[in-house]
Design brief:
42% of the residues lie in helices and 13% in strands. It is α/β, with parallel strands linked by helices.
């Protein structure tokens, strides 16, 4: 198949909870200094590749928003229209949110936590709406949404279902109209987008899809927006090193 469109995606730079090995989910944690440098480097790679954009999409979480800002700043693309949307937020990890891997394994068992993390259909225990981790308590971001829309937990499948309408109704229409699109978001959100682009992508592929922080990934898409090729704007050695340290 011949590529007709190009889409660039970036996972946000390292966050404070990435560094502490915690489940971040919808918690609005900030970038670390390393995460800032990763974001700046992503912008530099985009500039050196000569990639320019008409519109950029990101979540409502500042680790993604700030990553996009540093990319725009370094690539001198401050004029690009930025659209932020809650549907691009990270997977909501329910009762795991805020716990590190050791705490999670101690509380629920190592095998159970692994199953929640890797299963396409399983979701961690839900938080109660009285729990401060439930997104409904952040009225500045989510007051326009009915409470039943805000997740108390999510599986990977749930994340796909949340993102799919935004992909089909908004992002894909931007691409098909000829706009050059950049998406800066989160690990599980990017996995979900891959599923939205190609429904033939199975659960095992999604589980194995690990995009390191701050490395632009270019997708070449056919006329129906199915991926026909993809590559990083970095050497295989750098990507392998990033996987080994993540």
């Amino acid at each position: 198949m011949v590529a007709k469109y190009t889409l660039v995606v970036v996972r946000h730079g390292e966050s404070t909870w990435n560094k502490e090995n915690k489940f971040s989910g919808w918690e609005d944690v900030d970038l670390t200094e390393s995460g800032i440098q990763q974001s700046v480097h992503a912008g530099r790679m985009i500039k050196e590749a000569g990639l320019e954009f008409d519109v950029a999409y990101t979540s409502l979480l500042k680790r993604a928003i700030k990553t996009l800002f540093y990319i725009q700043d370094e690539s001198n693309q401050h004029h690009v229209n930025v659209r932020r949307h809650w549907r691009l937020n990270e997977r909501m990890y329910g009762a795991l949110q805020g716990l590190d891997k050791y705490q999670s394994a101690e509380k629920y068992g190592k095998e159970q936590v692994y199953s929640w993390r890797s299963s396409y259909h399983q979701s961690p225990p839900a938080v109660d709406i009285s729990d401060e981790r439930w997104p409904g308590h952040d009225s500045r971001k989510y007051s326009m949404l009915p409470p039943n829309v805000l997740p108390r937990t999510e599986s990977i499948q749930d994340t796909v279902h949340r993102i799919r309408p935004y992909w089909h109704d908004v992002i894909s229409q931007s691409i098909l109209s000829g706009q050059r699109v950049l998406i800066c978001t989160h690990r599980s959100s990017l996995r979900a987008l891959l599923k939205c682009m190609d429904d033939n992508t199975n659960a095992d592929v999604l589980k194995a899809t690990e995009i390191p922080n701050g490395f632009p990934l270019v997708y070449e898409l056919d006329a129906e927006l199915k991926p026909v090729n993809h590559y990083y704007l970095a050497s295989p050695e750098l990507i392998a090193a990033a996987h080994n340290t993540s």
